[in-house]
Amino acid sequence: MGEPKDKIGIKEYTVIALLMIGTKTTDDIPAMLFDSLMNAGWTAPFIAGVIALVPLTLLLHLATKYKEKNLIDICYHLFGKFLGFIVLFILWLIGFVYIALDTATYTDIISTMYFVKTPSIIIYAVLMGVCAYGAKRGLEQIGSVSWAVYPYLQVSLLLTLILTLGQGKASFLFPIFGPGEWEVMKESMMNLSIYMDFLYLFILFPFVKSTTDFRKGTWIAFIVILFNLTITMVSYVMLFDFQTAMTLNYPYHEVIRSIRMGFLINLETFFFPFWLIATFIKFAAYLYINILLFGKLFNINHFEYIIPAFSTLIVFIGMIPETPTFSVHYFKEMVGNIASPMFFFLPILLWILAKIKGDLRT
Amino acid sequence: MIKNLIKTLQKSTKQSIDNKEIILDKDLPKNITALKEIYSYPDNTDVQFRSLHINGLDKTAMVVFISTITNTKIIDEHIVEPLLKNQLKDSRIENIITIQSYKKKNNMKDVLIDINTGNAALFIDGEDQAYLLNVTNFEGRGIEKPDNETVVKGPKEAFNEKAATNISLVRKRIKNEKLVIENITVSKRSKNEVYVAYIKDVANEHLLNNVKERLKALDVDAIQNLSLLEQYIEERKHSIFPTVLYTERPDRAVSFLEDGYIVLLMDNSPDSLVLPATFWSFFHSSEDHYLRLIYGNFTRILRMAALFITIFTSAIYVGVVTYHIEMVPPDLLLAITATREKVPFPAAIEVLLMEFAFELIREAGLRVPSPIGPTIGIVGALILGQAAVEANIVSPIVVIVVALSGLSSFAIGDISMNFTIRIIRFIFIIAASLFGIYGMTAVFTMGLFYMVSLKSFGIPYLSPLSPKYKSSKDTLFRRALQNEIFRPGYVKPKDMTKR
After folding, report:
1. Looking at the domain A10-357, which fold is it?
2. Residue A130 and residue B439: Cβ atoms within 8 Å?
3. Predicted confidence (pLDDT) per residue in B460-477, tens digit
4. Residue ranges per domain, chain B?
5. Mean of the pLDDT values across residues B382-405?
């Protein structure tokens, strides 16, 4: 197999991006934001999104200039062999650690919210098994599956939103800036890593049919994600008020437990499968991109053969923290603190270097 | 001594093969002796050697044919009689016999092929070639109604076991000179022939060559019919999903031909193979398009619902009862637990037991001689189900669940897809019994990944849904006929629009 033979279209690319980043609103990211920003937590994804426009625009500008090159080639080209390798290696490491932490979070969600009695290592193993299987199938397959299921996933999220907003109170949103404007700005800046995955998506650049497709897809995905994140966060505040929202670790799963529709009182098992499908695809994509990067770094042509080994490794790393609900949360914040500045400054650095090298003049 | 015997035996087989390579001789008796040896005459009872004398030409002649697969009346009236009655001295043979079509061959091999396919060979003394006369008449049944793919509205002809009839049924529907029917011999010993039908200015060249190459690459002694051929040419032998469509309806085959697909026909097969096939072609039926738009889509919805019910009902029941009890409204939950109270098994065992019983009844019902058929139904469905509930082996709700999923499985008409879904159902039940909804979703996602990676002759299995292709979007729902203006883009037809 190796690198994908056929290129993926704009639809597939966009939904992969949507699933990779859009699902963040359903894990512990909202909890992180509510912790520091209280009822203004929902503004963070929006403001961070606005800030993320800077690196994103620069990256897209670079990508359109270097038509045939992906992020890896651009890094090597601009930083040189040695420095480029180090930058990419750090990128890969952050990605890898983040996958391990994130899957640990998702396993924790499944085992604390739905399968309390099942040993979490088995849940973890099944999760990674499915993701590894998906990743091993290749990028086109991940794209196809995402496109086939995406409408249903979005509808299920929309239904949750409608039900939540219907049962919530708008007055819980005020005061808009919660702990204060400066605090909001600072925290949003620190949580820029929500959008970090766009950086990794640029690795897929040569596998998307055309530059315009890539650019359009990135913007569409960015806007949809921005609204998905913001509106769901709003809905959490409206349903729970910030006092409760701050104590909840996985608000989305509390939300689908709290809402009701007609005679159906417990809806969580109805929404759960949709969320799970999104999760599987999300990590399949993560895993694929991460291992593609790894394969490029160490010149492994048939990188798909190391996918099973890596997923096993991830299970064992992810199982190390004993109280994942708290420790993983903490680790994630730590990684986020490194990743956020990196996401902001790396594109700027790349752009400046390209400018100095004179590649941007055409 | 035994060694010698084997040697002579080998020699004689070698010789008999060599005989087929020989060029015909001018000497009639020499040819006939060779033929008699090849056909083991007179042990072989239905091979006929009719010698006669053509008076006008003053020559002896011999007609060779196999009486069971030829029309002997035609041989009498149009070959033997004119030859015997001929008095003109300088007329040529082709002007004496009054048969529709003939050809001349001077190679024993070609002659044998023709005799074996029901033609008569006419040998004339002093000529080093044989006249091969078309008098084929294989026995077979007439055109009947389709058994498996029944429709209420629409044509009711089905393919039968004669390829010639089947081709005629196809040609009746496409009166166009671009409809090509090629002939490829696929087996070494039995010389089974496959007819490859396609429309020349629509079907994709690359696809066609792919199919033809795969047919020519076969190296087997015999392939009796299309059901066997299907397994020889499909890509993934161990896949749970079928990748070649098998239809017994000429109208369905033709509608695929018109879209640029390739259809295979064969003798002894009351059906046709359509290549390539996508998931949707197994899901659709020809009646979807014969019914008016709304009605057709209504049946599509029903069928999709039936598909999901078949796959998921039993599994969801197991999952919910074992892991997600809170999902059920309290009143229903009480009712379920009350009936399950006396049952000693876990829900998974209970459901698997009943599903297995259902499959048994189904299989047995299929094989049972028809007079006893209804008995099986009564014993199986009524007595077994009722008694199992009364004996507290299964709870009544399980009977409902299993009956529902079993009944729904009949809504999927295609035999192969039907099997696929029935087997998948068991996988989901096991997944649900291990991990509840989590397990089911895991299997579902893996199944999706598997399905999108499947290919049938290079065409993605779920196209045009994903990956996207230009097409008339005939997937879950169909559109009004006026709006279905494109041929499916994934088969890459030479002519994309239908008008």
Report:
1. Amino acid/polyamine transporter I (1.20.1740)
2. no
3. 888 888 777 888 888 888
4. 17-133, 163-277, 289-459
5. 86
Residues B63/B80, Cβ–Cβ less than 8 Å: yes
SS (H, E, C) B428-469: HHHHHHHHHHHHHHHHHHHHHHHHHHCEECCEECCCCCCCCC
Give the mean pLDDT of A312-321: 88
Q: What is the pLDDT of residues B18-54, one digit of tens each?
A: 555 678 888 888 888 888 888 888 888 888 888 888 8
pLDDT computed for residue A361 by the predictor: 67
Q: Determine whether B366 is exposed, middle or buried from the number of CB atoms within 10 Å of its CB (0-12, 13-18, 19+).
A: exposed
CB-based contact B143:B249 (threshold 8 Å): no
Is the predicted ipTM greater than 0.85, yes or no? yes
H helices present in chain A, as ranges: 10-22, 29-37, 43-65, 71-109, 120-137, 139-167, 181-190, 197-201, 211-247, 251-258, 268-297, 307-319, 324-357
**Hey, are the CB atoms on A11 and B324 less than 8 Å from each other?**
no
Q: A130: distance to nearest CA of chain B, Å?
A: 6
Instruction: Report DSSP letters for B303-354, one per residue.
Output: HHHHHHHHHHHHHHHHHHHHT-GGGS-HHHHHHHHHHHTT--S-HHHHHHHH
**Helix (H), strand (E) at residue B112:** helix B108-116
Measured between CB atoms, which of A9, A141, A284 is closest to B453?
A: A141
- Tell if the CB–CB gap between A273 and B440 is shorter than 8 Å: yes
- According to DSSP, the β-strands at B193-199 and B130-133 are unpaired
Question: B380-389: which pairs have CB atoms within 8 A and are 24 or more residues apart?
Answer: B384/B357, B388/B354, B388/B357
- Whose CA is closest to A151, among A270, A257, A274, A283? A274
Chain A residue closest in CA terms to B455: A141
Q: Domain boundaries in chain A?
A: 10-357
Which residues in chain A are closer than 8 Å to B450, comparing Cβ atoms?
Answer: 137
Nearest by CB to residue A144, choosing from B329, B435, B466, is: B466
pLDDT band (50, 70, 90) for residue A1: very low
pLDDT digits (tens, 9 = 90+) for B71-113: 888 888 888 888 888 887 777 888 888 888 888 888 888 888 8
